[in-house]
Specification:
9% of the residues lie in helices and 51% in strands. The protein is mainly beta.
Length: 316
């Protein structure tokens, strides 16, 4: 008998379930040769669907820059600007998260639970919800109060760890580390005396008197209003008094004030000029050895810095 006929008869007598198995073997062999992907049946006979490729959210860093000594809501601090891109996170809420560290990477400990991470470290957050598959944040700003760094007085080199995270927690992408310097609390306002000179026998508004010029420098008093204050007294320290509030201190001493509001951390006043009518000295006829006490004061009258005593002669 022909061998082919015998083989066919054997197959007919065999369990018919062998046919799908042989068919699958033929398909796999053919597909492998042609490099064609094939989904074969599982044990239940179902063919699984092709898996979907889900893109994982990510973010990339562009740049960071800082504005120091900014006041928001009466609180002084720094404004942090970050430019970054977020990918494949459309509609997924998250945060730009900034953590603060020492220069060696040790996280700063939070003290009051106002600007902190879940593990009690100093941090500041701003919420994001990207609107596109690729969302660009050109200038995303976060304000950090200086006091919330919780540092003792001194000079520091610090570091920011800038990340994008999910709102429920977990990292999307680390963006960058950024080093910065910071000074806490030890920059006390002060003033430096330059010189004083006087123009005598000047007439202003029909009144004869003296014009006092002062050159001085103010340090660490940016945007803090105050006065150059010139008080008049005898050389032995006895104060001169007046009843005219336009030319007196709170206690009635003869005084002149030049208002200041420094625009820089170090502000130089080259020629601050004030005028005193002679009549406000309230002295009888005679020659007098007098003195000016020249100070910088806060607007409420508290002393910033005594700068100099300036002697002068006056004859009425």
């Amino acid at each position: 008998m022909n061998l082919a006929v015998n083989f066919w008869q054997i197959l007919k007598k065999a369990n018919q379930n062998i046919l799908p198995v042989l068919l699958s073997l033929v398909l796999l062999t053919t597909a492998a040769a042609a490099k064609i992907p094939v989904h074969t049946a599982n044990e239940s006979g179902d063919v699984p669907s092709a898996s979907t490729n889900i893109l994982k959210p990510s973010a990339t860093f562009q740049k960071i820059w800082l504005d120091y000594d900014i006041t928001e809501g009466g609180v002084k601090g720094m404004r942090i600007h970050v430019q970054f891109k977020v990918y494949d996170m459309k509609g997924v809420p998250g945060y730009l998260a900034i953590y603060f560290q020492d220069s060696d990477g040790t996280a700063l400990e939070d003290n009051n639970k106002k600007f902190d991470s879940s593990d009690g470290k100093v941090a500041v957050y701003r919420e994001i919800t990207p609107g596109y598959a690729e969302t660009v944040y050109e200038d995303y700003q976060v304000f950090m109060p200086y006091d919330e760094l919780d540092l003792e007085d001194g000079d520091y080199t610090l570091k920011m760890d800038v990340d994008v995270i999910y709102k429920e927690g977990g990292m999307v992408s680390h963006l960058t580390f950024h080093d910065f310097t910071y000074n806490q609390g030890n920059k006390k306002p002060s003033a430096e005396f330059g010189k004083t000179w006087v123009d005598y026998d000047i007439t202003e508004g029909g009144v004869k008197g003296m014009r006092v010029h002062t050159k001085f420098t103010v340090n660490n008093m940016k945007s803090t209003p105050g006065y150059l204050a010139v008080y008049f007294q005898k050389k032995n320290g006895d104060k001169l008094y007046t009843n005219n509030s336009a030319y007196s201190s709170k206690d009635g001493q003869v005084a002149l004030y030049y208002e200041i509001n420094p625009g820089f951390d170090r502000t130089v006043y080259e020629d601050s000029t004030v005028f005193l009518p002679y009549s406000e000295l309230n002295l009888p006829k005679g020659s007098y050895d007098l003195q000016m006490d020249i100070d910088v004061i806060y607007k409420n009258g508290d002393l910033v810095q005594h700068m100099a005593y300036q002697d002068f002669w006056y004859q009425k």
